[in-house]
Design brief:
Length: 362
Protein backbone atom coordinates (compact mmCIF):
# COMPACT_ATOMS: atom_id res chain seq x y z
CA UNK A 1 0.00 0.00 0.00
CA UNK A 2 1.24 3.47 -0.94
CA UNK A 3 1.21 5.69 2.18
CA UNK A 4 1.86 9.42 2.34
CA UNK A 5 3.01 10.63 5.74
CA UNK A 6 2.86 14.40 6.18
CA UNK A 7 5.28 15.67 8.80
CA UNK A 8 8.91 14.66 9.38
CA UNK A 9 9.22 15.72 13.01
CA UNK A 10 9.77 13.44 16.00
CA UNK A 11 6.30 11.91 15.77
CA UNK A 12 6.45 11.54 12.00
CA UNK A 13 9.81 9.78 12.28
CA UNK A 14 8.36 7.23 14.73
CA UNK A 15 5.35 6.59 12.47
CA UNK A 16 7.57 6.14 9.40
CA UNK A 17 9.89 3.75 11.23
CA UNK A 18 6.98 1.65 12.49
CA UNK A 19 5.37 1.32 9.05
CA UNK A 20 8.40 1.12 6.77
CA UNK A 21 8.63 -2.68 6.57
CA UNK A 22 4.96 -3.24 5.72
CA UNK A 23 4.07 -0.29 3.48
CA UNK A 24 5.58 1.86 0.76
CA UNK A 25 5.95 5.01 2.84
CA UNK A 26 6.73 8.45 1.46
CA UNK A 27 7.24 11.30 3.91
CA UNK A 28 6.37 14.87 2.96
CA UNK A 29 7.58 18.00 4.74
CA UNK A 30 8.68 21.52 3.92
CA UNK A 31 11.98 21.06 5.80
CA UNK A 32 14.75 19.56 3.68
CA UNK A 33 16.82 19.01 6.82
CA UNK A 34 14.18 16.81 8.39
CA UNK A 35 13.55 14.95 5.15
CA UNK A 36 17.24 14.20 4.77
CA UNK A 37 17.27 12.37 8.09
CA UNK A 38 14.28 10.22 7.17
CA UNK A 39 15.54 9.55 3.65
CA UNK A 40 17.80 6.90 5.18
CA UNK A 41 14.85 4.51 5.44
CA UNK A 42 11.85 5.94 3.49
CA UNK A 43 11.13 7.96 0.36
CA UNK A 44 10.79 11.70 0.89
CA UNK A 45 8.96 14.53 -0.89
CA UNK A 46 9.25 18.25 -0.25
CA UNK A 47 5.68 19.46 0.31
CA UNK A 48 4.29 22.81 1.39
CA UNK A 49 1.14 21.89 3.32
CA UNK A 50 -0.17 25.44 3.04
CA UNK A 51 -0.64 24.95 -0.73
CA UNK A 52 -4.04 23.23 -0.64
CA UNK A 53 -4.41 22.44 -4.35
CA UNK A 54 -0.91 21.02 -4.63
CA UNK A 55 -1.56 18.93 -1.52
CA UNK A 56 -4.70 17.45 -3.05
CA UNK A 57 -2.81 16.68 -6.25
CA UNK A 58 -0.06 14.83 -4.38
CA UNK A 59 -2.50 12.95 -2.14
CA UNK A 60 -4.25 11.45 -5.16
CA UNK A 61 -1.10 9.43 -5.86
CA UNK A 62 -1.49 7.49 -2.59
CA UNK A 63 -3.91 5.03 -0.99
CA UNK A 64 -3.63 6.32 2.59
CA UNK A 65 -2.55 9.62 4.13
CA UNK A 66 -1.25 10.14 7.65
CA UNK A 67 -1.23 13.70 8.97
CA UNK A 68 1.46 14.50 11.56
CA UNK A 69 1.70 18.24 11.03
CA UNK A 70 1.26 21.06 13.57
CA UNK A 71 -2.35 21.67 14.57
CA UNK A 72 -2.77 24.76 12.40
CA UNK A 73 -2.50 22.53 9.29
CA UNK A 74 -4.70 19.69 10.55
CA UNK A 75 -8.15 20.75 9.36
CA UNK A 76 -7.03 21.78 5.87
CA UNK A 77 -5.08 18.51 5.57
CA UNK A 78 -8.21 16.49 6.35
CA UNK A 79 -10.23 18.58 3.88
CA UNK A 80 -7.58 17.98 1.23
CA UNK A 81 -7.71 14.21 1.79
CA UNK A 82 -11.49 14.22 1.46
CA UNK A 83 -11.26 16.18 -1.77
CA UNK A 84 -8.58 13.78 -3.03
CA UNK A 85 -10.75 10.79 -2.11
CA UNK A 86 -8.08 9.24 0.11
CA UNK A 87 -8.46 7.84 3.64
CA UNK A 88 -6.58 9.76 6.32
CA UNK A 89 -5.42 9.18 9.89
CA UNK A 90 -4.56 12.49 11.52
CA UNK A 91 -2.67 13.17 14.74
CA UNK A 92 -2.52 16.98 14.69
CA UNK A 93 -4.04 18.94 17.56
CA UNK A 94 -6.31 21.01 15.29
CA UNK A 95 -8.46 23.75 16.90
CA UNK A 96 -11.37 23.09 14.50
CA UNK A 97 -13.93 20.31 14.89
CA UNK A 98 -13.35 17.71 12.13
CA UNK A 99 -16.74 16.11 12.86
CA UNK A 100 -18.17 19.01 10.84
CA UNK A 101 -16.73 17.26 7.77
CA UNK A 102 -18.81 14.10 8.32
CA UNK A 103 -21.13 14.57 5.33
CA UNK A 104 -18.28 15.49 3.00
CA UNK A 105 -16.30 12.41 4.02
CA UNK A 106 -19.26 10.07 3.61
CA UNK A 107 -20.08 11.56 0.20
CA UNK A 108 -16.48 11.06 -0.94
CA UNK A 109 -16.40 7.55 0.60
CA UNK A 110 -13.41 8.49 2.70
CA UNK A 111 -12.52 7.33 6.20
CA UNK A 112 -11.10 9.97 8.53
CA UNK A 113 -9.76 9.08 11.97
CA UNK A 114 -8.65 12.19 13.82
CA UNK A 115 -6.82 12.80 17.12
CA UNK A 116 -5.12 9.44 16.56
CA UNK A 117 -2.23 9.98 18.96
CA UNK A 118 -1.50 10.02 22.68
CA UNK A 119 -3.71 12.70 24.21
CA UNK A 120 -6.02 13.23 22.53
CA UNK A 121 -5.98 9.71 21.17
CA UNK A 122 -5.13 6.94 23.62
CA UNK A 123 -6.85 8.96 26.34
CA UNK A 124 -10.05 8.79 24.29
CA UNK A 125 -9.57 5.11 23.46
CA UNK A 126 -9.21 4.26 27.15
CA UNK A 127 -12.23 6.35 28.10
CA UNK A 128 -14.24 4.92 25.21
CA UNK A 129 -13.54 1.45 26.58
CA UNK A 130 -14.52 2.50 30.09
CA UNK A 131 -17.75 3.98 28.75
CA UNK A 132 -18.50 0.77 26.83
CA UNK A 133 -17.98 -1.41 29.89
CA UNK A 134 -19.97 0.79 32.28
CA UNK A 135 -23.75 0.55 32.39
CA UNK A 136 -23.65 4.18 33.48
CA UNK A 137 -20.65 6.50 33.62
CA UNK A 138 -20.92 9.21 36.27
CA UNK A 139 -17.55 10.94 36.02
CA UNK A 140 -14.18 10.55 34.34
CA UNK A 141 -10.81 12.24 34.67
CA UNK A 142 -7.79 12.15 32.37
CA UNK A 143 -4.35 13.01 33.79
CA UNK A 144 -1.58 13.09 31.21
CA UNK A 145 1.91 14.43 30.68
CA UNK A 146 5.09 14.06 28.67
CA UNK A 147 8.04 15.33 30.69
CA UNK A 148 11.84 15.27 30.99
CA UNK A 149 13.24 12.87 33.57
CA UNK A 150 15.89 15.48 34.36
CA UNK A 151 14.06 18.85 34.27
CA UNK A 152 16.20 21.98 34.02
CA UNK A 153 15.39 25.50 35.21
CA UNK A 154 14.02 27.99 34.55
CA UNK A 155 11.05 26.30 32.77
CA UNK A 156 11.48 22.65 33.84
CA UNK A 157 10.16 21.40 30.51
CA UNK A 158 11.69 19.89 27.39
CA UNK A 159 10.05 20.36 23.99
CA UNK A 160 9.46 17.01 22.26
CA UNK A 161 6.64 18.13 19.95
CA UNK A 162 5.41 21.27 18.17
CA UNK A 163 6.20 24.37 20.30
CA UNK A 164 3.23 26.13 18.70
CA UNK A 165 0.87 23.41 19.88
CA UNK A 166 2.49 23.54 23.33
CA UNK A 167 1.65 27.24 23.70
CA UNK A 168 -1.83 26.57 22.31
CA UNK A 169 -2.52 24.44 25.39
CA UNK A 170 -2.00 27.50 27.59
CA UNK A 171 -4.05 29.93 25.50
CA UNK A 172 -6.99 27.92 24.16
CA UNK A 173 -10.03 27.93 26.50
CA UNK A 174 -10.50 24.44 27.94
CA UNK A 175 -13.86 22.69 27.83
CA UNK A 176 -15.05 20.50 30.68
CA UNK A 177 -18.32 18.88 31.69
CA UNK A 178 -19.72 19.86 35.08
CA UNK A 179 -23.15 18.74 36.29
CA UNK A 180 -23.80 17.46 32.77
CA UNK A 181 -23.17 20.85 31.14
CA UNK A 182 -20.28 21.84 28.88
CA UNK A 183 -18.34 24.78 30.32
CA UNK A 184 -15.38 26.71 28.94
CA UNK A 185 -12.68 27.62 31.47
CA UNK A 186 -9.28 29.34 31.57
CA UNK A 187 -6.71 26.53 31.21
CA UNK A 188 -4.38 28.20 33.71
CA UNK A 189 -7.16 29.37 36.01
CA UNK A 190 -6.79 26.40 38.36
CA UNK A 191 -3.34 24.91 38.93
CA UNK A 192 -3.15 22.07 41.45
CA UNK A 193 -0.75 19.42 42.72
CA UNK A 194 -1.44 15.93 41.36
CA UNK A 195 0.34 12.78 42.53
CA UNK A 196 0.57 9.74 40.24
CA UNK A 197 2.79 6.69 40.60
CA UNK A 198 4.66 8.29 43.50
CA UNK A 199 5.49 11.46 41.54
CA UNK A 200 4.18 14.96 42.29
CA UNK A 201 3.19 17.18 39.38
CA UNK A 202 1.44 20.46 38.73
CA UNK A 203 -1.71 20.05 36.70
CA UNK A 204 -3.81 22.40 34.60
CA UNK A 205 -7.10 21.82 32.83
CA UNK A 206 -6.48 21.33 29.11
CA UNK A 207 -8.80 21.33 26.12
CA UNK A 208 -8.27 17.68 25.30
CA UNK A 209 -11.79 16.30 25.71
CA UNK A 210 -12.82 17.44 22.25
CA UNK A 211 -15.04 14.75 20.67
CA UNK A 212 -15.62 13.15 24.08
CA UNK A 213 -17.91 16.11 24.78
CA UNK A 214 -20.25 14.77 22.09
CA UNK A 215 -19.81 11.03 22.49
CA UNK A 216 -19.51 10.40 26.24
CA UNK A 217 -22.50 11.03 28.47
CA UNK A 218 -21.40 11.82 32.05
CA UNK A 219 -22.04 14.36 34.78
CA UNK A 220 -18.37 15.33 34.99
CA UNK A 221 -15.48 15.09 32.52
CA UNK A 222 -12.08 16.76 32.83
CA UNK A 223 -8.61 16.47 31.32
CA UNK A 224 -5.61 17.63 33.34
CA UNK A 225 -2.18 18.00 31.74
CA UNK A 226 0.86 17.47 33.97
CA UNK A 227 4.01 19.56 34.32
CA UNK A 228 6.87 19.61 36.79
CA UNK A 229 6.35 22.18 39.58
CA UNK A 230 7.64 25.65 38.65
CA UNK A 231 6.65 25.65 34.98
CA UNK A 232 3.03 26.77 34.88
CA UNK A 233 3.36 29.95 36.95
CA UNK A 234 5.95 31.26 34.48
CA UNK A 235 3.79 30.34 31.49
CA UNK A 236 0.85 32.14 33.06
CA UNK A 237 2.87 35.32 33.55
CA UNK A 238 4.12 35.24 29.95
CA UNK A 239 0.57 34.76 28.71
CA UNK A 240 -0.82 37.59 30.83
CA UNK A 241 1.91 39.95 29.60
CA UNK A 242 0.93 39.24 25.97
CA UNK A 243 3.97 37.22 24.95
CA UNK A 244 1.77 34.47 23.51
CA UNK A 245 -0.32 36.78 21.31
CA UNK A 246 -0.13 36.10 17.58
CA UNK A 247 2.06 39.13 16.89
CA UNK A 248 4.56 38.23 19.62
CA UNK A 249 4.54 34.43 19.59
CA UNK A 250 7.34 33.94 17.05
CA UNK A 251 9.74 36.15 18.97
CA UNK A 252 8.68 34.60 22.26
CA UNK A 253 9.42 31.11 21.00
CA UNK A 254 12.81 32.27 19.74
CA UNK A 255 13.63 33.17 23.33
CA UNK A 256 12.00 30.39 25.35
CA UNK A 257 12.39 27.41 23.00
CA UNK A 258 16.17 27.17 23.62
CA UNK A 259 15.40 27.09 27.36
CA UNK A 260 13.30 23.99 26.74
CA UNK A 261 15.72 22.35 24.32
CA UNK A 262 18.30 20.23 26.10
CA UNK A 263 19.38 16.64 26.54
CA UNK A 264 17.27 14.63 28.94
CA UNK A 265 15.44 11.35 28.50
CA UNK A 266 11.70 11.94 28.58
CA UNK A 267 8.82 9.90 29.89
CA UNK A 268 5.09 9.77 29.24
CA UNK A 269 2.52 9.15 31.93
CA UNK A 270 -1.26 8.86 31.81
CA UNK A 271 -4.03 7.92 34.18
CA UNK A 272 -7.65 7.68 33.05
CA UNK A 273 -10.23 7.09 35.77
CA UNK A 274 -13.92 6.41 35.28
CA UNK A 275 -16.50 6.03 38.02
CA UNK A 276 -19.96 4.66 37.38
CA UNK A 277 -22.11 1.57 37.74
CA UNK A 278 -21.88 -1.99 36.45
CA UNK A 279 -24.82 -4.29 37.22
CA UNK A 280 -26.15 -1.72 39.63
CA UNK A 281 -22.95 -1.61 41.71
CA UNK A 282 -20.63 1.42 41.94
CA UNK A 283 -17.36 0.65 40.15
CA UNK A 284 -14.14 2.38 39.21
CA UNK A 285 -12.09 1.49 36.12
CA UNK A 286 -8.58 2.87 35.97
CA UNK A 287 -6.02 2.89 33.14
CA UNK A 288 -2.37 3.64 33.82
CA UNK A 289 0.27 4.13 31.12
CA UNK A 290 3.98 4.74 31.51
CA UNK A 291 6.75 4.88 28.91
CA UNK A 292 10.31 6.13 28.59
CA UNK A 293 12.59 7.24 25.76
CA UNK A 294 13.98 4.23 23.91
CA UNK A 295 15.86 3.20 20.76
CA UNK A 296 16.46 6.77 19.63
CA UNK A 297 12.83 7.84 19.92
CA UNK A 298 11.50 10.18 22.58
CA UNK A 299 8.76 8.64 24.67
CA UNK A 300 6.29 11.22 23.37
CA UNK A 301 7.15 10.20 19.81
CA UNK A 302 6.69 6.53 20.76
CA UNK A 303 3.32 6.78 22.51
CA UNK A 304 2.00 9.17 19.87
CA UNK A 305 3.56 7.80 16.69
CA UNK A 306 3.11 4.11 17.44
CA UNK A 307 -0.55 4.68 18.28
CA UNK A 308 -1.00 6.51 14.98
CA UNK A 309 0.78 3.73 13.09
CA UNK A 310 -1.40 1.00 14.60
CA UNK A 311 -4.57 2.96 13.78
CA UNK A 312 -3.24 3.52 10.25
CA UNK A 313 -3.06 -0.25 9.81
CA UNK A 314 -6.70 -0.56 10.92
CA UNK A 315 -7.84 2.09 8.44
CA UNK A 316 -5.56 0.81 5.70
CA UNK A 317 -7.20 -2.60 5.62
CA UNK A 318 -10.66 -1.05 5.39
CA UNK A 319 -11.82 -1.95 8.89
CA UNK A 320 -13.57 1.39 9.47
CA UNK A 321 -16.70 2.88 7.93
CA UNK A 322 -16.71 5.92 5.69
CA UNK A 323 -17.00 9.18 7.57
CA UNK A 324 -15.20 11.03 10.36
CA UNK A 325 -14.36 8.76 13.29
CA UNK A 326 -13.17 9.96 16.71
CA UNK A 327 -10.68 7.74 18.57
CA UNK A 328 -13.08 6.81 21.38
CA UNK A 329 -15.09 4.79 18.86
CA UNK A 330 -12.00 2.60 18.37
CA UNK A 331 -11.99 2.04 22.13
CA UNK A 332 -15.66 1.12 22.18
CA UNK A 333 -15.06 -1.52 19.48
CA UNK A 334 -13.49 -4.56 21.11
CA UNK A 335 -11.52 -5.65 18.04
CA UNK A 336 -9.82 -2.32 17.43
CA UNK A 337 -9.34 -1.72 21.16
CA UNK A 338 -7.52 -5.04 21.57
CA UNK A 339 -5.40 -4.47 18.46
CA UNK A 340 -4.25 -1.08 19.74
CA UNK A 341 -3.62 -2.33 23.29
CA UNK A 342 -1.70 -5.42 22.18
CA UNK A 343 0.27 -3.47 19.61
CA UNK A 344 1.45 -0.89 22.13
CA UNK A 345 2.39 -3.55 24.68
CA UNK A 346 4.44 -5.36 22.02
CA UNK A 347 6.32 -2.11 21.48
CA UNK A 348 7.25 -1.98 25.15
CA UNK A 349 4.71 0.56 26.39
CA UNK A 350 3.45 -0.25 29.87
CA UNK A 351 -0.34 -0.23 30.23
CA UNK A 352 -2.23 -1.44 33.30
CA UNK A 353 -5.98 -1.76 33.72
CA UNK A 354 -7.73 -2.21 37.05
CA UNK A 355 -11.37 -2.49 38.16
CA UNK A 356 -12.55 -2.06 41.72
CA UNK A 357 -15.64 -1.35 43.76
CA UNK A 358 -15.99 2.34 44.53
CA UNK A 359 -18.00 4.45 46.91
CA UNK A 360 -21.56 5.19 45.85
CA UNK A 361 -21.33 7.88 43.16
CA UNK A 362 -25.03 8.39 42.65
Amino acid sequence: MQVLLLGAGNVGKAIAWDLKDEFDVSVGDVSEKRLKELSKFVETIKIDASDFNELVKIMRQFELVIGALPGRFGYSTVKAAIKAGVDIVDVSFMPENPLELQKEAEKSQVTVVFDAGFAPGLSHIFLGRIYQEMDELKEAYIYVGGLPKEPKPPLYYRITWSPYDLIEEYTRPARIVKDGEILSVDPLGDIKIIEIDGKKFEGFISDGLRSLLENINAKRLEEWTLRWPGHLAKMKILRELGFFSSENLENTLNVISPLMTYESPDFSIMEVIGNGRINGKPMEIRYFLYDEEKDGFTSMARVTGFTTAIIARVVGRGACAYGVIPPEILGMREDTYLEIMNGLKKRGIRIEVSKSASSDNS
